[in-house]
Amino acid sequence: MKAKIGEIISASVSEGLEAKLELDNPEDLRIGYPIIVEGNSYEFYCIVEDVVNKNLEIAERLAGSALRDSIIPSGTTHEGYGGRIFYSKAVLRPIQLIDKETNELSEAQTIPPYFAEARHATKDDVERIYEVNKHSAPVGSIRGVEEFMVHLDFKKLTEKPFGIFGRTGMGKSILNKLVCLGILAKRAGSVLIFDMHSEYGIYSRGDNMEGLKYYFPERVEVFSLDPKNTEAKPFIINPRDIRPEDLIVSMRDLTQNMRDAIYEVDRTRGTEDLVRAIRNIDPDCVDESKIHLSVINAVKRRIGRLDRFSFVRGGKDTFKQMVEMIRDGRSIVLDFGDYGTDQMVYLFVANILARRLFNLYVEKSGNSPRLVVFLEEAHKFLEPEIASYTIFNRLARETRKFNLILALIDQRPSRIDDEVRSQLANRLVMSMKEPSDISSSLAGLQDRSMWETIIGTIPARTVAVMGDAIRIPTVINIMEYTPDNVRTHIIGETDSISNDKIDKIAKQATTVLDF
Q: How much is the pLDDT for 231?
């Protein structure tokens, strides 16, 4: 059913369209809904940018008056909100033109005539807009249309860096799981997840929801920093793989003098690993023209924090084992277990792994399989004052040609370095309230003011998707994360994991590395 909402009374290519509404109730129309305006030669595919009531002097006079209800017809009649005096308007932004004869799509470079009919978009309308191919799968349904699942092209999504932004509690983790499952289901690449809260393995520790390995038991491997996680393979970092930048990124209370001291020790340490070299500095041998003794003592105290990291020790190289699995087409979930609440651990581990991956992929010069690295709390690595010490700024700028792709997950995009944000080819933006974060998440986007309004008002579990992975920018209701939905819409029928398989994994994990 093509439900009319009103008629066009004002139009501009640069400013958009205005429709006088003929709805019984303006509350039936929401920002972000798709609308079709029927022109003579084209159908204008629009998004609702705003819904407004006119500022009327007579309305001001009647407000609070006993005459109000007798003079103004109710909203259930045409003379109410759709009447000659008291009515609402919708501000519409044309996104695409649909040629009525050929059905070809083009950019909105003209306007419809006066009194052109505006109506709700139907399933038939949106089917002409959105593309479905062998690389695509949905993460939800289009907002404001009878249920229509909107597909993202996961091949295009994983060709360049992308970002998932939204404030806490809006559903970023669910969206991230759906995106990861889409990447795996469409074989667009492998993923590496730094799983701080134990959400992505077999089951989520917090709510017992299914993780990536539940759906892809043979293609997802779980490692853990926490020795109590017997379902995962042990993960270790050899002290010889620690570099000055790893310490600087993870220990935020280092002064510039302390940073300089670490670099000086690294330069002169010989065959010792950096941590041992710092601990073994003889105070009597310190050249105080280069390093002040009090600075060295302060660095030693901070290095002592590594003593509580049971995963920092000698042994077989876990990184090499991970790389072999990635080359075999498998994905990696790195579970932090009881370390998940320690930001220092996350910064330390993620920087080391990303740096080694960067060096390996650059060395292989594009001959390695595509890997998408999901970086939560991205601003902690990419704030302007710390970004130069991490590998992630280079990873965002340089490695798409090497098949190593960065996915930023964050609630504070305004704190991410501008140059890094400019590299994002696709953005999945959920509700945010801080104006600087909204503006930063949409930097460089056409019609940014409209999208800023939408991002500031959309509800939880709703995402605005923009970039080359989707035909046009779209507001999507994220699907419920259930096994039925995941199998029906994303992965199809697969051999998901059984209880017997879980027990087998747990037994194998305790013996997979011989220390």
A: 83
